[in-house]
Design a protein that fits this description.
This protein has five helices and eleven strands, in the order ββββααβαββαββαββ. By secondary structure, it is an alpha/beta fold. A six-stranded mixed β-sheet has the order 6-5-7-8-11-10, with helices on both faces.
Length: about 220
């Protein structure tokens, strides 16, 4: 069975606030925004904070995980070094319980701070600005995407780069067979069209994408 659109069921988009249309898939309700192409899970189905943290703690995301390290090394080679060469100051946004990416970036000469609401919480001053912000496999977990993008804009230097990784969604019609929704902590889904909407709405310019899960943006004046 495919998805089932919920007639007359709408909710404001969590990114652009446009009316978004509800649909059912895998016994959950999602909303698709026709304006920015974002898809987001109905808040009623979001995981509780304790369960969310337990899920993250179960990940074996360490330097001993060869596949995990190789994924980041490829990310650095295609989405970081061509745009943000050392010396530069970076922030790994949403580093998780094992800040592997920071270690790999610093091996390349990029000084890196970390932030994670569960595992590395901290306060940021208005003057905290970075040449590079990395955000890998994080956007899909954010309940409030607009808050996340405002953070990027506030803490990225003009001319700085935002290097992102999140699997682009296949449209609502492809949700039924999309493995990415099986993770209960995945609540927000972007497409390449969503990032182009962001480019047209904020002082951010798309510099690179692999059309699958990786994208680099530059902050303009």
């Amino acid at each position: 069975m495919g998805i089932a659109w919920k007639k007359n069921k709408q909710r404001s988009c969590t990114l652009c606030f446009s009316p978004s249309n509800g649909f059912s898939c895998a016994d959950k309700t999602y909303y698709h925004c026709p304006e920015c192409d974002l898809i987001f899970l109905d808040p009623l189905f979001r995981p509780h904070r304790e369960k969310e943290k337990e899920r993250y703690e179960s990940h074996k995301n360490t330097l001993d995980n060869k596949g995990y390290v190789e994924m980041f090394e490829k990310f650095i080679e295609k989405a970081v070094l061509p745009f943000s060469s050392p010396p530069c100051q970076a922030l790994d946004f949403g580093c998780g319980p094992g800040p592997v990416l920071r270690v790999l970036l610093e091996r390349k000469g990029i000084t890196t701070e970390i932030y994670d609401p569960f595992f590395a919480p901290r306060e940021f001053s208005l003057g905290s600005k970075y040449d590079l912000i990395t955000c890998t496999e994080v956007l899909e977990h954010a309940f409030d995407p607009l808050k996340t993008w405002n953070f990027f804009l506030n803490h990225l230097k003009t001319g700085g780069h935002l290097s992102l990784m999140t699997l682009f969604h296949p449209s609502p019609e492809g949700f039924q067979d999309w493995w990415y929704i099986n993770d209960p902590t995945h609540v927000t889904f972007y497409s390449l069209e969503t990032f182009y909407w962001i480019e047209n709405s904020f002082p951010l310019r798309v510099l690179y994408t692999d059309h699958k899960n990786t994208l680099v943006m530059e902050k303009e004046k």
